[in-house]
């Protein structure tokens, strides 16, 4: 790829092809597990959008989609532990089978909060599907039903993930050079 975003990357962690293959597998597993049911996918804005678009098309069941936005890191790379709802759902989740779709689980604080919040609305079930899992930095355990890839403590960008709103449109996942965010 010939763009200047490439120069900010140390390496490519997962290629476009690897992502597509893994998402096919996740979609097949979800399709089997939810057979006969309808799914309400809840995407966590904004990082999960690209993953969610591909995942939804890998599931061979009726899928409704909705979104929530919660406070995130902004331009810093460590979690404040403070979670705020910036945009709530448009749909009622009562009696629905909710599948939360996340780009990456890091400290777990965001999803821990979201799970509690969504359970209080009386859905039929809630499961989590995350593209990436960074267990080294976990502060609170969250139950992950579907995990794309477990990764070391790298700061990753691409395929929806950003640094200061940049790199989301890279079709692969890459590791940012430390000097890109330290400097
Ligand atoms: P938690 O609450 O699990 O936060 O600490 C998860 C959210 O943090 C962001 N995050 C990242 N974003 N590259 C990113 O672009 C990363 O390596 C990274 N690690 C965490 C992300 O928004 C995620 O939803
Ligand atoms: Mg996110």
Automatic annotation (TrEMBL):
<feature type="domain" description="Phosphoribosyltransferase">
    <location>
        <begin position="17"/>
        <end position="163"/>
    </location>
</feature>
<keyword id="KW-0808">Transferase</keyword>
<dbReference type="GO" id="GO:0046100">
    <property type="term" value="P:hypoxanthine metabolic process"/>
</dbReference>
<dbReference type="Pfam" id="PF00156">
    <property type="entry name" value="Pribosyltran"/>
</dbReference>
<comment type="pathway">
    <text>Purine metabolism; IMP biosynthesis via salvage pathway; IMP from hypoxanthine: step 1/1.</text>
</comment>
<dbReference type="GO" id="GO:0032264">
    <property type="term" value="P:IMP salvage"/>
</dbReference>
<keyword id="KW-0460">Magnesium</keyword>
<dbReference type="GO" id="GO:0005829">
    <property type="term" value="C:cytosol"/>
</dbReference>
<comment type="function">
    <text>Purine salvage pathway enzyme that catalyzes the transfer of the ribosyl-5-phosphate group from 5-phospho-alpha-D-ribose 1-diphosphate (PRPP) to the N9 position of the 6-oxopurines hypoxanthine and guanine to form the corresponding ribonucleotides IMP (inosine 5'-monophosphate) and GMP (guanosine 5'-monophosphate), with the release of PPi.</text>
</comment>
<protein>
    <recommendedName>
        <fullName>Hypoxanthine phosphoribosyltransferase</fullName>
        <ecNumber>2.4.2.8</ecNumber>
    </recommendedName>
</protein>
<dbReference type="GO" id="GO:0000287">
    <property type="term" value="F:magnesium ion binding"/>
</dbReference>
<comment type="pathway">
    <text>Purine metabolism; GMP biosynthesis via salvage pathway; GMP from guanine: step 1/1.</text>
</comment>
<dbReference type="InterPro" id="IPR050408">
    <property type="entry name" value="HGPRT"/>
</dbReference>
<keyword id="KW-0479">Metal-binding</keyword>
<dbReference type="GO" id="GO:0006178">
    <property type="term" value="P:guanine salvage"/>
</dbReference>
<dbReference type="GO" id="GO:0032263">
    <property type="term" value="P:GMP salvage"/>
</dbReference>
<dbReference type="InterPro" id="IPR029057">
    <property type="entry name" value="PRTase-like"/>
</dbReference>
<comment type="similarity">
    <text>Belongs to the purine/pyrimidine phosphoribosyltransferase family.</text>
</comment>
<dbReference type="GO" id="GO:0004422">
    <property type="term" value="F:hypoxanthine phosphoribosyltransferase activity"/>
</dbReference>
<dbReference type="GO" id="GO:0052657">
    <property type="term" value="F:guanine phosphoribosyltransferase activity"/>
</dbReference>
<keyword id="KW-0660">Purine salvage</keyword>
<keyword id="KW-0547">Nucleotide-binding</keyword>
<keyword id="KW-0963">Cytoplasm</keyword>
<keyword id="KW-0328">Glycosyltransferase</keyword>
<dbReference type="InterPro" id="IPR005904">
    <property type="entry name" value="Hxn_phspho_trans"/>
</dbReference>
<dbReference type="GO" id="GO:0006166">
    <property type="term" value="P:purine ribonucleoside salvage"/>
</dbReference>
<dbReference type="GO" id="GO:0000166">
    <property type="term" value="F:nucleotide binding"/>
</dbReference>
<dbReference type="InterPro" id="IPR000836">
    <property type="entry name" value="PRTase_dom"/>
</dbReference>
């Amino acid at each position: 790829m010939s763009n200047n975003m490439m120069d900010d990357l140390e390496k490519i962690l997962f290629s476009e092809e690897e992502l597509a293959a893994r998402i096919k597998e996740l979609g097949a597993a979800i399709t089997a597990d939810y057979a006969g049911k309808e799914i309400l996918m809840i995407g966590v804005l904004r990082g999960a959008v690209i993953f969610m678009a591909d995942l939804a098309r890998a599931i061979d069941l009726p899928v409704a989609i909705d979104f929530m936005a919660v406070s995130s890191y902004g331009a810093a790379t460590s979690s404040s532990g403070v979670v705020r709802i910036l945009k709530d759902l448009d749909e009622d989740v009562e009696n629905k089978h909710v599948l939360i779709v996340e780009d990456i689980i890091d400290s777990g604080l965001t999803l821990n909060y979201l799970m509690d919040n969504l359970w209080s609305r009386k859905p039929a079930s809630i499961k989590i599907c995350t593209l990436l899992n960074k267990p080294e930095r976990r502060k609170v355990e969250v139950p992950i039903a579907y995990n794309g890839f477990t990764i070391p403590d790298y700061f990753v960008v691409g395929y929806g993930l950003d640094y200061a709103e940049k790199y989301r449109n890279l079709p692969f996942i890459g590791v940012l050079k430390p000097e890109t965010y330290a400097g």
